[in-house]
UniProtKB/TrEMBL annotation:
PROSITE patterns: ANK_REP_REGION (PS50297), ANK_REPEAT (PS50088). Keywords: ANK repeat, Repeat. InterPro entries: Ankyrin_rpt (IPR002110), Ankyrin_rpt-contain_sf (IPR036770). ANK repeats lie at residues 33-65, 66-98, 99-131. It comes from Aquimarina brevivitae. The keyword Repeat applies. This is Uncharacterized protein. The lineage of its organism: Bacteria, Pseudomonadati, Bacteroidota, Flavobacteriia, Flavobacteriales.
Length: 157
């Protein structure tokens, strides 16, 4: 199993393909931090690996030890193409990790406007508050981000 996670960390698609094709159940295994192959590949931004893993229908909302999903992992990094793939496979855009944060909260806090747009278009709820009582709306106000702009974009007007 550590061979698979090492291959993912180093973006070795050929090795990943060999390992997973030989044992498809590996797509839902976890490493010592509770990360699945999909979560780890998403976090590192390895698009081709993510595409390959998604073809085996892994759990897109599997969580690591901190309650993060693959979508939360890409939301603050701005990996919009991976986020779109995860959402298309059913990722929960309103999932909260152990800190209560959502993908939208992370996208706002790390100033990822394209990610904010995607999440808002897919129904992310800006009123969900984290464990500190701050919502995506609150963080947006603090950072001077007008979420209404994203609503206009997402509604197509």
């Amino acid at each position: 199993m550590s061979l698979l996670f090492d291959a993912i960390r180093h973006n070795k698609l050929d090795s990943i393909q060999q390992l997973v094709t030989a044992n498809e159940s590996l797509v839902n295994t976890v490493d010592e931090r509770g990360s699945t192959p999909l979560l780890l590949a998403s976090y590192y931004g390895h698009l081709e690996v993510v595409q390959f893993l998604l073809s085996f229908n892994p759990s897109v909302d599997a969580v690591d030890a901190m309650g993060n999903t693959a979508l939360l992992g890409v939301s603050f990094k701005g990996y919009t193409e991976i986020a779109s793939l995860l959402i298309a496979k059913g990722a929960n855009v309103n999932h909260q990790n152990k800190a209560g944060a959502t993908a939208l909260i992370y996208a706002i806090r790390f100033n990822q406007p394209e990610m904010i747009k995607i999440l808002m278009e897919q129904g992310a709820d800006p009123s969900i508050a984290d464990n500190e009582g701050n919502s995506a709306k609150t963080y947006a106000l603090q950072q001077g981000i007008d979420l209404d702009e994203f609503r206009i974009i997402s509604s197509g007007t």
